[in-house]
Amino acid sequence: MERSALDLWVGLFVCAGLGALLILAMKVGNMTSIGLGNHTYILYANFDNIGGLKARAPVKSAGVVVGRVASIGFDNARYNARVELSIDDRYKFPKDTTASILTSGLLGEQYVGLDAGGDSVNLGPGEAIKLTQSAVVLEKLISQFLYSKAAEGDTAKK
Amino acid sequence: MFGRSAIVNIRSIGHHTVDAVRRFGYASRFLALTIAGSGASFRRLRLLIRELYFTGVLSLIIVLVSGLFVGMVLGLQGYHTLQTYGSESALGVLVALSLVRELGPVVSGLLFASRAGSAMTAEIGLMKATEQLAAMEMMAVDPISRVVAPRFWAGVISMPLLAALFSAMGIFGGYLVGVVLIGVDEGSFWSQMNAAVDFRNDILNGVVKSFVFGVAVTWISLFEGYDAPPTAEGVSGATTRTVVTSSLAILGLDFLLTSFMFRGF
Q: DSSP 3-state assignment of B198?
């Protein structure tokens, strides 16, 4: 094998391999979308019930991903779930923002939705979101529905 | 009579254990010597480039073609299963995650072991059988730094590149079958894939896996070749052992690495 041809082939191989990695990072992975590295700040939110929320689930506001769930723990003082949200530095939210646990689609993954309020002061790093709404638990919803149906039936009889 | 055969059995267990430990120790010493003697392969890049050609470039065809076909089959099979749940738009996620996390490193590692690893074993085994290694020692050339180390680094460098190419080719194959042939929506194919695949957790872990497989396969192949009995029979046995041992090592290491990397999610 000619020396220059050898170099050419090896060079092509290395470039192609690195190119494949780059394609994987850019096109397949989410390197190009929000870089949740060091440019984030932490917010806390307490929920009565988090349903099936998992760490690393997205935090969305108006449908746009603004952060991720960093960790989930149990608050033994208040007996509810304490969720740590890491939010992208570019986005600030007012003090009276509401955090709710929502589901994408009927059977989709659960995420945290933030609805901005009207307060002029923004939430700073490490602060807690006061207004929260728990995950919808299907069993509770059905039992509520059945109770209300039964109550309706009683009033109809009378 | 019974006691005697029991003693023989226990003795053979002991013999095998001692043999395995001795062999492993010898192999570890061999690896340490290879890494210690690898200065020459970076100072004289020509050696490394030659080996990169033989292990990397010549494995390209088989890795690319198998990647393409694995991706196309994943696209077909995944579509038929996902379609029953009406979620064929998640096809991109299925293809990308299974390739990047598992199939890319593992299948390209298996191909690499049988394509490049066996060739390395046979080459070094024959060099030993024809006393070329001994001749080098006679000329005061260290066969480990001249013959073994460049091959080792070539294998370690080319394995992650081959795995990345395999995954990229597989995703292209999945795209061909899923989007071009079957007609899954192109936008949701890419965007859902983009949302689900994480750079650090999925892609970098895949690269780490393929790097570990590269070290394991090259180490096993070089050691088997270096340790082969210098006969035609010995070389053929060593080549077989290379493929079997490195395949088993890849599967075992893959299970270990996966259980460390992807727990919790």
A: coil
Beta-carbon contacts of residue B98 (< 8 Å; ≥ 6 apart): B74
- Specify burial of residue A106 (Cβ count, 10 A radius: 0-12, 13-18, 19+): exposed
Name the interface residues of A facing B (CB cutoff 8 Å): 1, 3, 6-7, 9-10, 12-14, 16-18, 20-21, 23-25, 27-33, 54-56
pLDDT per residue over A37-84, tens digit each?
A: 557 888 999 998 888 787 778 888 888 888 888 888 998 998 989 999
SS3 state at A52: coil
Are A83 and A112 in contact, with CB atoms under 8 Å apart? yes
Domain that holds residue B104: 37-261
Residue B196 sits at the vertex; the CA angle it makes with B74 and B97, to the nearest 5 degrees, is 30
- Number of structural domains chain B divides into: 1
d(CA B169, CA B178): 14
Determine the Cα–Cα distance for residues B192 and B196; give it in Å rounded to an integer: 6
- Give contacts of B194 with chain A, Cβ < 8 Å: 27-30, 32-33
Alpha carbon of B96: minimum distance to chain A alpha carbons (Å): 7
Is B10 among the domain residues? no
Do strands A131-133 and A40-47 pair parallel, antiparallel, or not at all (unpaired)? unpaired
Cα–Cα distance, B129 to A141 (Å, whole number): 77
Chain B contact residues (CB < 8 Å to A): 46, 49-50, 52-53, 56-57, 60, 96, 100, 157-158, 160-162, 164-165, 167-169, 171, 190, 193-195, 197-199, 202-203, 207, 264-265
Please give the ipTM for the structure prediction. Answer: 0.76
Among residues B81, B62, B104, which one has the least CA distance to residue B197? B104
pLDDT digits over B207-228, tens only? Answer: 999 999 999 999 999 999 998 9
Query: In Å, what is the CA distance from B131 to each residue of B85, B119, B122, B134?
Result: 64, 18, 14, 5
A122 vs B29: CA distance, rounded Å: 61
Tell me if B15 is assigned to some domain.
no
What pLDDT does B107 receive? 96
Length of chain B: 265
Q: Is the pLDDT of residue A34 over 50?
A: no
> Considering only CB atoms, which chain A residues are within 8 Å of B165?
16-17, 20
